[in-house]
Sequence to fold (366 residues):
Amino acid sequence: MSNKKQIVMLVDLDYFFAQCEELRNPSLKEKAIVVGVYSGRTHESGAVSTSNYVARKHGVSSGLSLYLAKKKLENYDAVFLPVDYEYYKRISDEIMLDLKSYSDLFEQVGIDEAYLDVSVRTQGSFTEALILAKKMKREIKKRIGITFSVGIGSNKLVAKIAADSNKPDGITLVKTERVKQFLASLPVTRLPGIGKKTSQRMNDLGIKTISDLSKYDIQKLVDVFGRNLAVYFHNASLGLNRDAVHKTIDVESISRISTLKENTRDLIILLEKTNELISSIHKDVINKSLKFKRIGIIVIMADLSIRSKSKTLVNYSNHFGLLERTVQNLINSFLVESEMEIRRIGVKVSQFIPDEKKQKQLSSYF
Ligand code: DCP
Ligand code: CA
Ligand code: CA
Fold:
């Protein structure tokens, strides 16, 4: 890492799915908007994906059952909408492309968040960073119509916690010399990686605030949480974090598909073909220094209908043998499920991260 002052922003789109619904239908703005995943057979089973601030005022937020949400809102003007992921993704893509242009280094984290390293273009000046953040908010609001909250700090951890502390449409800047004071009184749950279970265990140790955590004997933390987590918790409580902004990978998937000499269901013939495809995909993955998490097969049947099957790995990998074995298992189970002959077969890998040999273990918290 260079010695120059690092400045990182975290952008978090406000009440995102619900704000997208307001964008395409502004007349909904004054109403409570609940975007939900309808899972079951009855009209009301399912959960709230997110809601706008009008609905939140009445106690309706992410994770609540739709049944309870309806009950809480029965005396108010409310609309319930199903998740339209494709539409939200289109808006997100447009915003992310814009945000990227304000950064030196850009890392998207999920559909509604991104880290921007702006150290170079602000020359390490927090004042410049604040001006940049305001400009970015103004221009994207004007061009796309979506608001977001920004946290600015000297690393990803501080930027993230800062962004969370002033929503919606906020900007929070935490200068390096104010970090300790800023964090001190916050509950430990505000640190990324500390959820319900961990905070309960900390609570049992008498640790409630981030300040409590920073003063707690580190050896005792090691005894309870193990070395890696203890070190992360201790450093995080002091606002220390060395995780770099990783450049987001533009490529979404790498695939190859090929037509068989003749239609077949013969496993050996199919594997011969997929092994060729795998070799070519694997070369590509290594050349681009990627690791993938999802492996799939695409099968075009004798009647030209298309099927696919995939598996998500536990860890990111670019291991040739694992790719081979996984494809073999997918084909095996595909053959059990279907009786028709196969005309073409393809292999696809997706969900990439950069393959950085020295990747920090705890970066998975971000
Ligand atoms: N989401 C979901 N289910 C959850 C949490 C979130 O489907 N339990 C979806 C809907 C959200 C989006 O992910 O719009 C982003 O999640 P956030 O946690 O950032 O929540 P919001 O953007 O909705 O609200 P906020 O303004 O608090 O960031
Ligand atoms: Ca978010
Ligand atoms: Ca959000």
Remarks:
- The radius of gyration is 24 Å.
- Residues 358-366 have pLDDT under 50 and may be disordered.
- Residues 12-14, 16, 112 surround calcium ion (ligand 3) (CB under 6 Å).
- Residues 267-287 form the longest helix (21 residues).
